[in-house]
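Private note to self, pasted from the team thread so I don't lose it. Backbone tokens:
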């Protein structure tokens, strides 16, 4: 198909076929099995309360070890993410790198079956490997986003992916909680299958991604080694970052906001078990509530951001997060006050379900908006590299947030330390005030005009 260039000389991005967009979004559907079952809902609680156990310290050592495992995996992403992204762009190899990360995640996750009580080092090793591979894949799949549609559609496409991801999580974790039961020592022989189940779910449901998502662009001449390509391109990008000022500012804001998000992802259900003291039935209901509200938040705010602007939407989601964190922290005290004032007989776990709705809306919408904004600021020929920096900011945030929370809770306890998240979200909001979305989009278009752009792809199947 023929395409008329825009006034600035660039070719407009064409919307991909519905099948390709669905195939891309199915990776979000598939990888939520890992995020929820291993990091958030089941294995994190199993590791801290059963594999390590309470050493008469209120699980503080267990929480710290869990923090360290996640932080090491994220630190590895920080070191390697942008370098891999540079090679992927240069060699048009996004699908190849994505496939390697996918297989590595599946294998390491399946091996979690062998982590029994007391096998702490094996558990730490497999979490580092599996979470590193999963996190790299998260950046690799995001690098396809700018190719899937014009700027005005990226919010909806990103939101659709996140929403479908939470639906996938609802299926995966819902089945696990019903079929495998709770994460306790008495139920260990059943719940230990959570790793193999998450691996098989990811393995099967990600197949449409590799069948239908296209590898656009052409590989450049391969006269240099991958290491030389990576360092040369990343060095050039770092030198050019002054031209992508708004991307740079936003990534700093993202560093703080995602530090808070990663704390919640890693410790929300641990918080429920240790601070709220919820029953298994309430934990299961909370999981369903968070998945539904997160999907609704990602999808709803995806449409909103294409109308009012992605930056404004991102700021609104951070405001939601501050309210959610304060509610999480205050749940035990507010429950006691309501019971005393109104003569009620509520338990903290019941009020915590209402807090889960607010946290879910914040979770889906904030991550979708941040991914879409990076897509708007990324030239198509540097998308993988820029999303490598997005992954760097995300995972460096994970290192800072999770280590910070792990150390802080070892001193003041988990409930008080959760307030760290609110402070992180407020700092992120203040930094983002300096981001100019229109200027950031112009910078991406001007780079493409100067450096040329590949021929636009047909939107057909």
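Design output:
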């Amino acid at each position: 198909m023929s395409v008329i260039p825009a006034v600035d000389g660039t070719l407009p991005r064409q919307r991909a076929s519905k099948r390709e967009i669905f195939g891309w979004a199915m990776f979000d559907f598939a990888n939520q099995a890992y995020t929820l079952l291993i990091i958030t809902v089941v294995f994190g609680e199993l590791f801290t309360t059963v594999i390590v156990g309470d050493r008469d310290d209120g699980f503080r050592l267990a929480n710290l070890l869990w923090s360290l495992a996640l932080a090491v995996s994220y630190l590895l992403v920080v070191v390697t993410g942008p370098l891999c992204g540079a090679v992927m762009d240069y060699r048009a190899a996004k699908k190849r790198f994505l496939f390697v990360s996918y297989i590595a995640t599946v294998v390491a996750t399946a091996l979690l079956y062998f982590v029994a009580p007391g096998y702490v080092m094996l558990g730490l090793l497999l979490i580092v490997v599996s979470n590193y591979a999963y996190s790299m894949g998260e950046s690799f799949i995001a690098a396809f986003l700018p190719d899937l549609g014009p700027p005005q559609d990226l919010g909806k496409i990103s939101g659709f992916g996140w929403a479908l991801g939470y639906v996938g999580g609802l299926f995966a974790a819902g089945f696990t909680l019903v079929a495998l039961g709770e994460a306790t020592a008495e139920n260990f022989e059943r719940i230990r299958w959570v790793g193999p189940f998450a691996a098989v779910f990811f393995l099967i449901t990600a197949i449409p991604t590799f069948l239908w998502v296209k590898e656009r662009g052409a590989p450049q001449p391969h006269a240099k080694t991958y290491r030389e390509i990576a360092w040369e391109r990343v060095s050039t990008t770092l030198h050019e970052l002054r031209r992508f000022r708004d991307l740079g500012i936003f990534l700093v804001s993202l560093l703080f906001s995602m530090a808070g998000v990663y704390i919640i992802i890693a410790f929300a259900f641990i918080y429920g078990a240790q601070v709220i003291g919820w029953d298994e039935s309430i934990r299961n209901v909370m999981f369903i509530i968070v998945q539904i509200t997160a999907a609704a938040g990602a999808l709803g705010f995806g449409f909103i951001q294409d109308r009012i602007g992605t930056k404004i939407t991102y700021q609104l989601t951070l405001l939601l997060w501050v309210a959610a964190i304060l509610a999480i922290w205050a749940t035990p005290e507010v429950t006691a006050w309501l019971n005393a004032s109104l003569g009620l007989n509520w338990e903290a776990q019941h009020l915590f379900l209402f807090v889960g709705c607010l946290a879910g809306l914040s979770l889906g919408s904030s991550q979708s908006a941040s991914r879409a904004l990076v897509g708007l600021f990324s030239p198509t020929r540097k998308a993988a590299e820029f999303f490598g920096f997005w992954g760097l900011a995300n995972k460096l945030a994970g290192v800072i947030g999770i280590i910070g929370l792990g150390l802080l809770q070892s001193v003041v306890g988990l409930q008080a330390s959760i307030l760290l998240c609110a402070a992180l979200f407020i700092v992120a909001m203040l930094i983002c005030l300096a981001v100019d979305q229109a200027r950031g989009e112009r910078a991406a278009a001007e780079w493409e005009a100067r450096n040329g752009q590949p021929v636009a792809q047909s939107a057909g199947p």
